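Late entry, evening session. Most of the bench is empty. Finally got around to the prediction I had been postponing all week. Sequence below, unchanged from the version circulated by S.P.
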Amino acid sequence: MTETYDVVIAGSGPAGGQCARDLAARDYDVVVLETEAEDEFPRQSNKSTAGTFPSTMAAFGIPDEVVMNFTDEVVLESPTNHYAQEQAGAVLEFADFKNFLVDEARADGCEYRFDARVTKPILEGGEVVGVTYNRSEEIYADVVIDATGPSAPLAKALDVTDLKRENQAIGVEYEMRGIDIDHDEHADLTDAMMLRLDHRYAPGGYSWIFHTGEDTAKVGVCYIQNDSHNRYARSGFGIDDYLQRWIDTDPRFAAAERIEGKQHRGSAHIQLPTGMSTDNFMAIGDTVPTIDPLWGEGIGTCMRSGRAAAITADYCLTHDAIDTSAENMAIYDQLWHEDVAPNMKNRLLMVELLYRAPNSRYDDLMADLERLDDDTLSRANAGNKRAITKLLKPGDIPLLANLARTRLSERFGN
């Protein structure tokens, strides 16, 4: 017998989970296919640092019960300096958060199938009409959504996304106890999310400490293995080596130890989307990709992506005659650029400039942020060109020239 739904979603991360939650609340017949076994979920996909902000907590009704620690400050560190800005936030227990999304959608009638690995789209007349999972099982739907992240089995098969390996960021994180959160030689990280720019520990990327209460924190490293990484990398070092080097040399970790079973690994692509939708289909979350290119915050952007897809599906399925054509599905693309990740092109430019800079420039950046008005960093982070310009100095001209040459080379294939 043919199984048919209004919407089938592959993947139950923040994007897929929120999309399912929104559509189920609107009484659509939705099924989510998740690779992991239910009794282990989400052990394999528990990959996020899970820092987010009040706007996301309020917009999506995330309960306090899934919060490990509420924070009130964001700290940026360089090798010898730091900058602190008041900014409320929350560090989530990611596994509890993902299960919350599952429970919410199920309560409104969404069906979840675990141990269900999606492998390819089902095509009729060149258009996707369903998915194959577990090699031979089939489900048909009016709308098919890929929320599987970088693996993207449906989006890749449909030529909707083109995720470049050279744009793939990798990260590893430990949860640790015994950390000196307020060490004399460093900024006070009590109830703070800290991001460190320092090529010794994260060449071409950044490292972090997110306070999770008392003497515990999430501690990690992330970088893209591109030209900038190669310029500052140590021979023979992998990402685990860099994180261990930081732990071994930073006095805040002198008495710290890893919490057993609390190691997280993940990856996401930092690039402009090449596509998002086609007839009967949308790619959401890190399948697009959607993660914040500067600081890696993905929960808010992925959930907004899932909501934009739900809005689009609702529009397409509530016509007098169902219309899931590429033209109607492109509403999702518009919402993505307007609401999910506005000014992405400018923000990616800032990423390239930031991670190409030497450590000495990071020290200067902290001093610059101290003397500039309080919202310069926020506006620059949002892709405001004038704010980005305020952060540049004459000494950055060689950096800009090098970036321009790289972009021209990539454009013309030289």
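Two things to note before I forget:
Residues 189 and 343 are 30 Å apart (CA to CA).
The chain has a mean pLDDT of 92.
Will write this up properly tomorrow.
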